[in-house]
Amino acid sequence: MEKRTQFPVGWLPYALVAPQLAITIVFFIWPAGQALWQSLLVQDAFGIHTEFVWFENFQVLFADPTYLESFRVTAVFATLVTSLGLGSALVLAAACDHVIRGARTYQTLIIWPYAVAPAIAAVLWTFMFNPTVGILAYGLEQIGYHWNHQLNGGQAMALIVISGLFKLIPYDFLFFLAGLQSIPKSLIEAAAIDGAGPVKRFLTISFPLLSPTSFFLLVVNLVYAFFDTFGIIDAATQGGPFRSTTVLVYKVFQDGFKGLDLGGSAAQSVVLMAIVISLTVVQFRYIERKVQY
Amino acid sequence: MIEHRPGFTFFCHALLIASIVVVAFPLYIAFVASTHTAGRMFEFPLPLLPGGEMLHNYATVLQHGVAGASTAPVGRMMFNSLVMALTIAIGKIAISILSAFAIVYFRFPLKNFFFWMIFITLMLPVEVRILPTYKVVADLGLLDTYAGLSVPLIASATATFLFRQFFLTIPDELMEAARIDGASALRFFWDIVLPLSKTNMAALFVILFIYGWNQYLWPLLVTTQEDMYTVVIGIKRMIPGGESSVDWNLVMATAMLALTPPALVVLLMQRWFVKGLVETEK
Question: How many domains does chain A have?
Fold first, then answer.
């Protein structure tokens, strides 16, 4: 889609896109190309000798049990965060759509955690669950449940899921609420006249009409769970205990920055790139039909 | 309201209030913790009401930071975060609106190629190109600088799309009238497009300010000097592995300070926030 008349072309349009393109090339495309290239190389410990090895890094990677474990951890984390986030946000949005008095106030008080950095949310929840000073850990102790996420992998996972949900639920909530509010009232009223109660109306009318929103949110939530949770993991568990919370993004960082395994880390980056690209393609192919290129 | 169902309505209110309490609880506990002495944190029963050390704790972290933690004073880190968030928000808006203007109002060779290049940035978050990007920034000598903290995050496909979509809705007649009156492209941009884009810019600013303030991985990579840390990464340095020596009251005071600016932005500019969130992702 274009304007039917255009300004005369000179150097101006190039100058206008230049800053954006310069940053894109220098900080996005060039490094991504480097990652692709390095994933095919093996470097010795001193960085003197480099050898081209085709896909050996990938073979090593997928033969590495800790990497496969990291895949499993990521899958568990993403599934929990996405399903709990979508589920509770939908229920809250439906409740907020139903009530009339105070709906605006409820909305404000539900969405504010979106502003909290994931790492800060992780610090808040880590404090609450801290085995020595945490009020929730103390409360659980009182009812006979021993909490120590520094030793128990399942509890560490629960901690990062809770911290991750803190930002995700407000986000999903806003989109579901907007979706619910855009459903024509006449449909709901017709169903009510036919005798359908609020729950029945929700299940047979609102929920099906929300499916585009839900699908969009599913993709966005997966991207969030895969890529935006680095801060949570680093602040709350550092991937531990015993790698039980080492998700893919955290492993790239550990292997590349702490372990200085250049080829292996680049190969992991390429795998992650493939994941983002497929998620983005799904998002734009099936959801974003309004944007035309 | 469609029908009168007091029971169900009551249930909805109860559910909403319960969830608000759950969400606010950590914030309240953090606030309470930030108003006590460090020693009080280890006494049972744990404090549930604010204590009297609030001013002292906040003044301590703002001016001196936390003893034993290798961070700059929180005041300094808040300043770094502010510079970073503002540069990212304003920079992204500026370069995106320019490139969107070029893409919508000019037909020039390589236009689609450029558009695709910008689109590709969506698929390359920092997390998937950590090491090479770090190397580029290091080679350019940008480690531990504000430019290094913000410029690599300024490219934005979503903001460009948003402005592009908006420009396509501006009536063509406006541009034709401007051209008949002899306005150049830049004058048309400055006098017509920019004023019309104000609401979109405000909405984007809110979202991008929060995005910039809350960055974690990138500042972690490019800062090595303590006085260049942002507050979001600084707070993690205050919680070392060994549990015993953590001054939780000061850490929580820092957490409160770190989350207040973006939370205020959301609360005070809620209308823009909702608009920005829904439209950038659409």
Answer: 1
Task: In whole angstroms, give the CA distance from residue B267 to residue B261.
Answer: 10
Question: Looking at residue A114, which CATH number applies to its domain?
Answer: 1.10.3720.10
Label residue B36 exposed, middle or buried (CB < 10 Å: 0-12, 13-18, 19+): buried
% residues pLDDT > 70 (chain B): 95
Contact B128 A220 (CB under 8 A): no
In the three-class reduction of DSSP (H, G, I as helix; E, B as strand; rest coil), residue A73 is classed as helix
Pick from A6, A114, A138: which is nearest to B107 by CB?
A6
Domain ranges of chain B: 69-239+260-281
For A154, the domain range is: 64-286
Domain formed by B69-239+260-281, architecture: Orthogonal Bundle (1.10)
Q: A248-292: per-residue pLDDT in tens? A: 888 888 887 777 677 778 888 888 888 888 888 887 776 654 433
Task: Kindly report the average pLDDT of chain A as a whole number.
Answer: 85
Contacts of B26 in chain A (CB under 8 A): 121, 124-125, 127-128, 166
Model confidence over A179-203: pLDDT tens digits?
898 888 888 889 888 888 888 888 8
Q: Is the distance from CB of B65 to CB of B72 less than 8 angstroms?
A: yes
